[in-house]
Design brief:
With 308 residues, this protein is of the alpha/beta class. It contains 11 helices and 9 strands. α1 crosses α11, α5 packs across α6 (170-181) and α5 packs across α11. The longest helix is centred in the last third of the chain and has 20 residues, at 285-304. The protein is globular, with a radius of gyration of 19 Å. The structure holds phosphoric acid mono(formamide)ester. Phosphoric acid mono(formamide)ester is lined by residues 57-60, 131, 137, 140, 264-266.
Length: 308
């Protein structure tokens, strides 16, 4: 197989195992390219991509833009906070206006779950979901799995625990879909109040004791507490959360093995992870960011090759 089964990347739930393998093989090639002295290829000279962000982003926005530029695509950036959305323009009108300027692909981050799916039904362009509310963040999950594969040789059969605010996390859901597709064993760990009902139906186990979860796992993916999505208190205090669900150096040293620490960023240092863990040799946080560019180049390249 040399092409994706989908025309858009709306979520991991729409991909199959072969799609993920193809994205990883393509990313291997682009990772080699971006480590050369000339980091750019002329592959997408005829393609124009709009990055439209209705929510804040550092890593995802910069990583997509860099990936597009490394592929020689023409790039336009749109930030909702500085746009006519502030004057009441709808999502469809906004995107159709952008597309009338002959844009081929849209990378969108939006606070509403399903915004990418909605857009894909109403506009004639390839859509990449760069995070839709608390729903999915497919390129984050792909770069996370790719980083595990790079560090441990494969994802299949590995024990992965996702720790923290599972309820509000698009990273958690996309990671669960991606890891299960590749044959990993997945647990989620966090306060019961931040655990979605029926999460076990996704084929994951719930563990509320962090030490037990860390003793079981090969990799711990630490998630940020998403205060911006909370309208009530889900735990008594941040200090108490950090004591029960934060990873620090002494906790890591009390385990009888060395585990890999991941975090999608942005980090709340001292809450879900202490600085001595985030900056340690066990952490692959910056490798995740580096791999994000290669993964996004692969996704853009594979989707662009399906544009008629
Ligand atoms: N990991 C992630 O999505 O980070 P940003 O919100 O900075 O893009």
């Amino acid at each position: 197989m040399s092409e994706l089964s989908v025309n858009h990347l709306l979520g991991i739930k729409y991909l199959n195992k072969q799609d993920i393998e193809l994205i990883f093989e393509t990313a291997d090639h682009f990772k080699e390219v971006i480590n050369r002295s000339i980091k750019k290829v002329p592959t997408l000279r005829d393609i124009t991509i709009a990055n439209i962000f209705f929510e804040n982003s550092t890593r995802t926005k910069l990583s997509f833009e860099l990936a597009e530029k490394r592929l020689s695509a023409d790039v336009v950036n749109f930030s909702a906070s500085q746009s006519s959305v502030k004057k009441g323009e709808t999502l469809i009108d906004t995107v159709n206006n952008i597309l009338s300027m002959k844009v081929d692909m849209v990378v969108m981050r939006h606070p509403n779950p399903g915004a990418g799916v909605f857009l894909s039904k109403h506009v004639d362009a390839s859509i990449i979901n760069a995070g839709d509310g608390a729903h999915e963040h497919p390129t984050q999950a792909l770069l996370d799995s790719y980083s595990i594969r790079e560090k441990l040789g494969s994802v299949k059969g590995k024990n992965i625990v996702i720790v923290g605010d599972i309820l509000h996390s698009r990273v958690a859901l996309s990671n669960i879909f991606a890891l299960k597709l590749q044959g990993a064993n997945v647990k989620v760990c966090g306060p019961k109040t931040l655990m979605p009902k029926h999460i076990e139906s996704l084929g994951v186990q719930v563990e509320t004791n962090l030490k037990k979860a860390l003793e079981w796992c090969d990799v711990a993916n630490m998630l940020r507490v998403q205060n911006e999505r909370m309208d009530i208190s889900y735990f008594p205090t941040t200090r108490e959360y950090a004591q029960q669900f934060g990873v620090n150096k002494s906790l890591l040293e009390s385990l009888n093995k060395e585990i890999v620490i991941m975090h999608p960023g942005p980090i709340n240092r001292g809450v879900e992870i202490t600085s001595d863990v985030a900056d340690s040799n066990q952490s692959i946080i910056l490798e995740q960011v580096e791999n994000g560019v290669a993964i996004r180049m692969a996704v853009i390249y594979l989707l662009a090759s399906k544009i008629k």
